[in-house]
Amino acid sequence: MFKKIFENVQNETPLVHCITNYVTVNDVANVLLAAGGSPIMADDPKEVEEITAICAALNLNIGTLNERTIHSMLKAGKKANSLSHPVVLDPVGAGASALRTETTFELIDTIAFSVIKGNISEMKTIYAGSGTTKGVDADVSDAVTEDTVSEAVAFAKDLSARTNAVIAITGAIDIVADSQKAYVIRNGHPSMAKISGTGCMLSGLIAAFCGANRENLLDATATAVCLMGLSGELAQEKAVKNDAGTSSYRAYIIDEISKMSADKLAGGVKIEHR
Amino acid sequence: MFKKIFENVQNETPLVHCITNYVTVNDVANVLLAAGGSPIMADDPKEVEEITAICAALNLNIGTLNERTIHSMLKAGKKANSLSHPVVLDPVGAGASALRTETTFELIDTIAFSVIKGNISEMKTIYAGSGTTKGVDADVSDAVTEDTVSEAVAFAKDLSARTNAVIAITGAIDIVADSQKAYVIRNGHPSMAKISGTGCMLSGLIAAFCGANRENLLDATATAVCLMGLSGELAQEKAVKNDAGTSSYRAYIIDEISKMSADKLAGGVKIEHR
Amino acid sequence: MFKKIFENVQNETPLVHCITNYVTVNDVANVLLAAGGSPIMADDPKEVEEITAICAALNLNIGTLNERTIHSMLKAGKKANSLSHPVVLDPVGAGASALRTETTFELIDTIAFSVIKGNISEMKTIYAGSGTTKGVDADVSDAVTEDTVSEAVAFAKDLSARTNAVIAITGAIDIVADSQKAYVIRNGHPSMAKISGTGCMLSGLIAAFCGANRENLLDATATAVCLMGLSGELAQEKAVKNDAGTSSYRAYIIDEISKMSADKLAGGVKIEHR
After folding, report:
1. How far apart are the first and last CA of chain A?
2. Where does substrate bind (chains A, B, C) (predicted)?
3. What's the rounded mean pLDDT across residues C250-254?
4. Angstrom distance (rounded) from CA A45 to CA B64
5. Which of C9, C31, C33 should be substituted to probe chain A, the one whose Cβ sees the most A Cβ atoms within 10 Å?
6. Alpha-carbon dihedral of residues A161, A163, A168, A172, nearest 10 degrees?
């Protein structure tokens, strides 16, 4: 599956409309180009519908949300839904402020998301607001470890059933699930937590991969997660070899994505089906 | 000509006021410093006139335009005109949304631009709105190739006559023209299309080069285009040698600009006079 | 002192709320992670109080201020004061426009800053507005050199007494002072002026170091200044060795910060007590 999905991105050059935070926006743009996609950033309410209409997918990231961009996200998302474009949500910091939490709920209530990607804390915030009274503690621990993989998988499937979106929970171990099927992914390296932007880059990649693989969003998402993680591993090897620090490591990750081949990716994935 | 123009930038350290998109703004700041200029970014309507007054040139880029920054661009542009500062327009995405197209027209109607720089598609959008009824298909093909150079040169000269600005059309082959004279530039490398920001960096450089060479905007623009392209070539050599990916390649381009000398530039330009 | 202060940052991972300019925001995020802290950027008035409440320190930088973010800075600063969180001001460009100068005064009048960091020109602007009629020429020359260190130290102590903040004046020679005590720091390298963002990165670091060392803001600030300067020196050695340009040099600086140890820092500081 990985090879075909990866090749589709390379062959179709999906244009991805990103309304994303200004901290990591340059990384998102460059990682999309590195993976074979193409970025366009536009966040004014007056143009987001037109811009998203010419794209293959939409990526919404609330990392530095404000009133204007929230409005733009809602407009762009509805338009993308009307055109059946894949729409990805990265609810950065949901739970950290009422504005982020309520915006996340409003986005999920208004837009049919194809994929929601976040860390376990953000995902638990979404779960708590998704129609039950279970509250923030969603019967899943605060980090996905080998001991808690099973409960995390069950949580992800449940959240997918509630939101009707593919769920990607990122951490030391990544979970990608729909309501029926889940992947447990063990690519990646702890060094990735020492740089800004790997999460935002991944959201962008997921949008590109879904844009070029609309008939298979679960596998497209899983492939993007593997690509990001594997590139982090390969970059780590180079960083160790060069005695590099974190800034060079960040460049190496994007470098590895740009140098990835379908075969290298297929040979490096560490994925388990649950 | 190249040596003197390049040396003027190094000697005068032109301060460039940039109202530019937030995707590539850091690259623009760093490339200006690398080339011997100095950047200042300011986009609030309350201060843009004062800021542009202390600068040598103004760089307007609509890549992530919004209502507030459009207003700022108009104010800054008028002020720069009143002070006879060079003003550069990079109409990113003109044609992709009504907001971008109409903003481009409003900017051109309101401000006397010294240089307009864009790809052929953006330039055709401008041509279509520049007072004739010829429409978007401006009798020039969609990419400048060896077969279409002559018509592109004629198009650029015509557009320069209509806008009274130096025209820089970027692509595999670059054209820089005023109404009478044109340069065809064959510097650059296809890898530059795999990274974000080369176009925005070039606009910044053009502003700096015009700011330090006000009496010769055509040659200043052509020199900046050559500098960007030659640096892309030299960076490509290094990238191949180091088996680098796209993120390292991006850094190498700015590195090469910072390491450029007047002699190296003069020896590396691939320019033809038409 | 340096070792303990540095280790506190590594051990406490201070979360720093940054309302900072969009030019260098990514560098600020990455340098905070490199030094052992953690960044969160949030600039909407609706959430800044909540966000700053969960952080260890607040970093305000007016590099690309606008009406909305000025409002957010005021709200966040008052909240941080009410929680006794350290608050750092980087008055980028104070003196260059009325908006910047007046905003700087409004921030200083409204918020009790722990540290104010700027170049000599910005600091003189603040001095001029800090309650006397001495005006912009604050009896201190325009650059801190060996000949003018003594008057700069006196100026910094006086400004600290007026603002009740630790004062960090950056330049070829850095001064860090409260009203009683001053450090003269000779770390750093002239190449740092050829890249964008070293000043903004330093403000972020100062906030992190103060957040993890609240009982000793003067020494925390001095340590952050030494860390930035020493990393610039070490990066320069690597840049010379690799014949690198300015973009690689910028990456090397963050690399060196991420590779710093308490011992290496303590061994490399060039600091004098006045």
Report:
1. 16
2. 41, 197
3. 98
4. 12
5. C33
6. -80
Q: Which of B53, B21, B19 is nearest to B39 (CA)?
A: B19
Using only C-alpha atoms, what is the Rg of chain B?
17
Confirm or deny that A117 is annotated as ligand binding.
Answer: yes
Q: Is C14 left (phi over 0), alpha (psi -120 to 50) or beta?
A: beta
Q: Are A126 and A100 in contact (CB under 8 A)?
A: no
Run of H or E residues at A168: strand A166-170
Q: What residues contact residue C5 under an 8 Å CB cut-off, 6+ apart?
A: C209, C212, C213, C216, C219, C220, C223
* Chain C residues 54-93 within an 8 A CB cutoff of chain A: 54, 68
Sheet strands side by side (includes C166-170): C38-41, C15-19, C57-61, C87-90, C115-119, C166-170, C174-177, C182-185, C271-273
Of the partner residues C30, C255, C259, the one whose CB lies closest to the CB of residue A196: C30
Residue B121 in contact with partner chain A when CB distance is under 8 A: no
Q: Which two tokens stand for residue B257?
A: 């600009």
Beta partners for residue C156, in sequence order: none
Instruction: Give the integer Cα–Cα distance in Å for B238 and B232.
Output: 10
Nearest to A64 among C42, C250, C253 (CB): C42
Question: In this complex, is the C-beta atom of A41 within 8 Å of any C-beta atom belonging to chain C?
Answer: no
φ/ψ region of A39 (left if φ > 0, alpha if ψ in -120 to 50, else beta) reads beta
- The answer to whether the pTM exceeds 0.90 is yes
- State how far the alpha carbon of B240 is from the alpha carbons of B129, B236, B269, C71, in Å: 43, 6, 21, 49
Residue of C19, C26, C31 to mutate, interface with A, max A Cβ within 10 Å: C26
Contact B217, B210 (CB under 8 A): yes
Two tokens, residue C198: 């070293």
Distance, C-alpha A143 to centroid of its chain:
18
3-class state of residue B31 by DSSP: helix
Q: In this predicted model, what pLDDT tens digit does every residue of A213-271 receive, in sequence order? A: 999 999 999 999 999 999 999 999 999 999 999 999 999 999 999 999 999 999 999 99
CA distance C226 to C185: 7
**Cα radius of gyration rounded to whole Å, chain A:** 17
Q: What letter represents residue A145's amino acid?
A: T
Whole-number Å distance between alpha carbons of B112 and B115: 9
CATH class of B2-273: alpha beta
CB A92 within 8 A of CB A127: no
Identity of the amino acid at A254: I
pLDDT tens for residues B234-272? Answer: 999 999 999 999 999 999 999 999 999 999 999 999 999
Whole-complex ipTM: 0.95
